[in-house]
Known about the structure:
Elements: E1 4-5, H1 9-14, E2 18-22, E3 25-30, H2 34-43, E4 45-49, E5 54-59, H3 63-70, E6 83-89, E7 95-103, E8 107-112, H4 117-126, E9 133-136, E10 141-147, H5 151-159, E11 165-166, E12 171-176, E13 179-184, E14 193-199, H6 204-214, E15 219-221, H7 224-234, H8 267-276, E16 280-287, E17 298-301, E18 304-315, E19 320-328, E20 337-342, E21 345-352, E22 367-368
Amino acid sequence: xxxxxxxxxxxxxxxxxxxxxxxxxxxxxxxxxxxxxxxxxxxxxxxxxxxxxxxxxxxxxxxxxxxxxxxxxxxxxxxxxxxxxxxxxxxxxxxxxxxxxxxxxxxxxxxxxxxxxxxxxxxxxxxxxxxxxxxxxxxxxxxxxxxxxxxxxxxxxxxxxxxxxxxxxxxxxxxxxxxxxxxxxxxxxxxxxxxxxxxxxxxxxxxxxxxxxxxxxxxxxxxxxxxxxxxxxxxxxxxxxxxxxxxxxxxxxxxxxxxxxxxxxxxxxxxxxxxxxxxxxxxxxxxxxxxxxxxxxxxxxxxxxxxxxxxxxxxxxxxxxxxxxxxxxxxxxxxxxxxxxxxxxxxxxxxxxxxxxxxxxxxxxxxxxxx
Length: 371
């Protein structure tokens, strides 16, 4: 079966992007250099095609109570125009998917992982209640993400921003050139940045506009490879690596997204886990010797195998090989030395605190965006 193509597929080819299949989509893994692209996002800015993500609208008189029962975080703290990281959990308290939820005027806009969209839709419809409508809008929107310290300057140029304070983890629905678009101050890199949802049809022109204005701010088109490095540096989990439907939020170090003060699917099991403590924990590690840690590699201590690598890569911004792993709770301590088995040989590493790089989104300046 041929991979699905986003509206920006031809732009990737024109920029000599190396195309791979990712969750059934033809997307660039890199253009010229994965490491150079990761460096550019930390120093200036980069542009990513994230149109493969799933978008699901939930609306109706009972939309709030419906979603509030299915997510681990507390939607009641969201005002219209704000967004929140959240988790869908099964009855065992394990993660069906992680997602961002946008609170709009008359609906909730759920942005889910491409690989999990059908599973999430099935889960939502299995739990449907009266006066709730679930709409798959994934083919109505394309999505571009511009990330980095100079991203705000590009956005100001392209969208003629003025008039409304625009802070991190907030969004605006705006009309420009006769089109309704959504601009959120968010991303998956740890940098200041924006995710922009365009009508799917004829959206390729926006790639050109962002690239053209971005030339003045050292913007680079970026692929999946640099996105993976950047999210690792920021300490962000990736579904299928750090989280899945056998892992709970306490193990995944995502307990900050769990609010036991409200009722939700999976709460009973999570309450028990909180009381007794998780048996394993997601941690970050820094290689002390030169070796590439890959998913599934065993981690050793003097007592034997104590865990497995979930993700690993070379970070051009840190200047070392870094990774994430699940470790026995007794070894999941900052400063703990471990050994990772790479092709039958043990290499030294140490447990470090997330993130691996300085997170700059909290310090980003306010943007004024015209509606």
